[in-house]
Amino acid sequence: MNHFSKQTTSFVILFLIAAIATYGALRMNKKLQQELANQTNSSIQNKINQAHQTLNQKSNLETAFGPSVDTTDWQEYSDPTYNIRFKYPPAWKVATKQDDSQKAYLIVLTPPQKKQPITVYVTGNDYFAMDGIPTKNVTINGMSAVTANDILVGVKHNANYYTFDIGENLNLKTEFQGVVHTVAFNQ
């Protein structure tokens, strides 16, 4: 039978104790890392949930679109084909046309002095020229709508998408908002 010297035995015992302590420390470190990761993931998930909740609250808010404009003296346009109606300033002209190249029905509102018109695009598949543009949800006359910087406004009614475009003349913003604010649909 081989007997180890006291020195060898002590070394082996110390080595085993060090190995067990190292193993325990590594396991404890891994457990602490997992707990920290779980807490971090939980914290991140809570922040994500809060952000989603905030976005949902904002999108569910009834947001008034633009300033209120007195439209009592304005004329009313009513389109028999697409059942949309809205008011427009009395000196303005309204014309419609089918634009097959853009696959849209256009309602063109031209102000006096031949300024750039406001155009309403009626399409059947999506809002006109709003693809990829950041939008926010608004409510217009109790209807859900979207707007891009208050210069493009989209309203969906039944199978049609109605996109109101202020065009290049931002000086018409008040009139544009008045037109959009009076949108309604015939039954």
What is the fold's blueprint, element by element?
Blueprint lengths: L5 H55 L14 E4 L5 E5 L4 E7 L4 E7 L7 E6 L12 E5 L2 E6 L3 E6 L2 E6 L7 H9 L2 E2 L2
Protein model, in words:
The protein has 187 residues and is α+β, with helices and mostly antiparallel strands. The protein has two domains: 1-60; 75-185, Mog1/PsbP, alpha/beta/alpha sandwich (Protein Transport Mog1p, Chain A). It contains two helices and ten strands. The strands form two sheets. Strands 3-4-5-9-8-7-6 form a seven-stranded antiparallel beta sheet. A three-stranded antiparallel beta sheet has the order 1-2-10. The longest helix is centred in the N-terminal third of the chain and has 55 residues, at 6-60. The radius of gyration is 33 Å and the shape is rod-shaped.
Q: List segments where confidence is low: pLDDT < 50 over at least 5 consecutive residues.
A: 54-64
What's the total count of β strands? Answer: 10
Structurally, how many domains make up the residues? 2
Strand fraction? 25-35%
State the end-to-end CA separation.
105 Å
CATH level-3 fold name of the largest domain: Protein Transport Mog1p, Chain A
Q: What is the CATH first-level class name of the largest domain? A: Alpha Beta
Secondary-structure-based class equals alpha+beta
Which architecture of the largest domain does the CATH hierarchy give at level 2? 3-Layer(aba) Sandwich
Major sheet summary line: 7 strands, antiparallel
In CATH, the homologous superfamily of the largest domain goes by the name: Mog1/PsbP, alpha/beta/alpha sandwich
| Radius of gyration using CA atoms only | 33 Å
Number of helices: 2
Order of strands, widest sheet: 3-4-5-9-8-7-6
